[in-house]
Amino acid sequence: MMDMAAQSGDSFDDARRVRRNRFLMGLARGIAGALLFALPMLMTMEMWFLGFYMGRDRLLLLMLLNIPLLVVLAHRIGFERTVSWREAARDATVAYGIGIVSSALILTVFGLLKGDMPGTEIIGKIALQSVPASIGAMLGRSQLAGDADDDEDEEEPDETQTTYFGELFLMAVGALILSLNVAPTEEMIVIAYKMTHWHALALVILSIALMHGFVYAVSFEGGHELSPDTPWWHAFVRFTLPGFVIALSISLYTLWSFERIDDTSAANVLLSVIVLAFPASLGAAAARLIL
Fold first, then answer.
1. More exposed terminus of the chain, fewer Cβ within 10 Å: N or C?
2. pLDDT score for 59
3. How far apart are CA 88 and CA 92, in angstroms?
């Protein structure tokens, strides 16, 4: 009896050790993912200035909306397989912490955070950059996972098979990833200013066409996989059109958050949203590759 108890205790310790090691490996991947996905924004001048003058109500809203996004992502692709929303919330908290620490470190190394700066400016810069960095930290597991982890995951039952609305959520995340990279830049406004309404119509058609091509190429495996016999309009109606609407909505929100469309006419706002929706729609359609 004592030998059986000892063996049981050893097995429990081994399982706990493996679980801890997998979490630490996921944590390392999270740090790498934060740098990989957030570095373009950490090196973007407009993002530095936004951290200083961006409205604090919009910054707070962006940070608050990022929390449930991270929790849902953690439930799918956290630092380790989660079986409850409590564990997902833990992973989301860790990812946000990684985003904050890595943003503060990189901004300091770049000489963008200094001791003589007002506290509100320092906090604003770190808070703004921590949003894409935290998303990158969470995506680090799916993008940087090794073959060994893939084999281990195959041995465990898949409790997070993606539903249709889950696919739409992932498309929103994909749109957000790419739109965050370009929405703060002046180029979005300049391109919209130079475009005519015919250019805008052509860009909408091109965005939808490329997005539909991505949908068929990726096939949304793991959730609602499209069989070869599926008619073209099925994917177009169920994924492409909703995905483009999501891309437009994400584009409008990010432009508003970054104060790129304040005091702008409705026509220019529409043109700016269409311009940003081009990369956002590609990000939405490629979400299954990204995530």
1. N
2. 93
3. 6
CB–CB of 118/96 below 8 Å?
no
Distance CA 14, CA 152 (A): 15
Helix spans in 145-184 (H): 147-155, 164-182
* Sign of the alpha-carbon dihedral angle for 183, 186, 189, 192: negative
* Ordered DSSP codes for 9-47: HHHHHHHHHHHHHHHHHHHHHHHHHHHHHHHHHHT-HHH
Q: What are the tens digits of pLDDT across the range 82-93?
A: 667 788 888 889
Read off the DSSP letter of residue 260. S
Report pLDDT for 230: 64
Q: CA 59, CA 131: separation in Å to the nearest integer?
A: 10
Scan for tokens 């703060």, then name that residue.
184
Please tell me the predicted confidence (pLDDT) of residue 223: 43
Contact indicator for 38, 103 with CB cutoff of 8 Å: yes
C-alpha angle with apex 98: 93 to 101, nearest 5 degrees?
A: 125
Answer whether residue 100 shows pLDDT above 90: yes
d(CA 41, CA 29): 19
Mean pLDDT within 48-66:
91
In whole angstroms, give the CA distance from residue 153 to residue 167: 20
**Cβ-contact 113, 122 below 8 angstroms:** yes
Of 132, 141, 59, nearest in space to 102 by CA: 132
